[in-house]
Amino acid sequence: MTDTTETTTPTRPAPAAGRRLPGADRARAFTEPPSASPRPAGHGDLPDVLADPDPDPVVSWDRFAQEPSGSTEVLVQQGWVPPAPPEPPAEWGRRRTVLKVLSLGLATPKPGKEELAHRHNVRAIRQATWPRSVRIAVTNPKGGSGKTPTAVILGGLLAGIRGGSVAIWDAADAAGTLGGRTEGIAARCVSDIDADPDGYAAPSTVGMVAATQTSFADVLGSLREREFTADSITRVTTVLDRTYRISVADTGNVPHSPAFTQIIGLADILVVPTTLTADSVNKAVALLRRLQDTPTGLAAHAVVAVLRTRGPQTPGLAEQINAIFAKAGVGAVVDIPFDPHIAAGTAISISSLTHASRVAWTRLAAATVANLTVN
User: Fold this and answer.
1) CB-based contacts of 231: which residues, under 8 Å, 6+ apart?
2) pTM for the predicted model, two decimal places
């Protein structure tokens, strides 16, 4: 009699929890996309109480294989940006020093508000972009108001933070003192560019006129007596625009001279230094009022640097200085503390500034960048 007993192929039991799959099956489990397995025979339908009333939609794995950029496009369309990297530990400040001492050097304190603000200013300076070379005019018709130190430090900080490509130049009608407040002396001077602008069409030739600072700024001073006209300013500005991304002009003291008028007309922003004396402040305010109706809005975007010195001060002026320039409608007023390195009257090095002074000058540079508009 023939044996009619049905033979079935034995099935491998499912692996117990925590048990590793055999080699071939384990590889398949990690490489194959999940699929809807057929329900085992003889089990019937699941009772309604266990059924999913709102089943998830079926996800097509092929779609992700064919469109790997789909999810990225959705994130971009929704304005997603990657999170900012965490702030490094504090590098200065009393709180950092105390915590380092108490923890025997093991603590990594977070930066305080002042340091965070300083880092923000540095990033703003470094990341600023413009569609062309920009021109900053440091100006106040009052002599001794701090124009030359302001031009040297402002240009030096911009160059140091942005990695160079900043020219600081003597734009006064007569030869100024810029070269005496900077590091090194160039073999040629800005008068040579005025005399032969076509001979300085390449950056390498302009470099012969410049004294490069430790801040990476280039200073183009004066070595001999000369008189600049409006055409002189135009010729030098054209050469500097071809070579540098930023030029900082140290202006003279004659507000109605052709050179002064031309440098103001070509400037993208004014930085107005002043001391706490009535004549310095009045000269600055008079200049700003004269420029209020200019189409470029130089007065409205001007940045005022209030320089603290150990020299004579007009009584009561310090308490009113912010209100005076706010009424003049300027873009920003930045207070600069006294610095003995600047007061010495010798060559200025950015690395020799006091900590408080450098933080304040960086704030001035950030305010300049923030108010700089290019038409």
Assistant:
1) none
2) 0.75
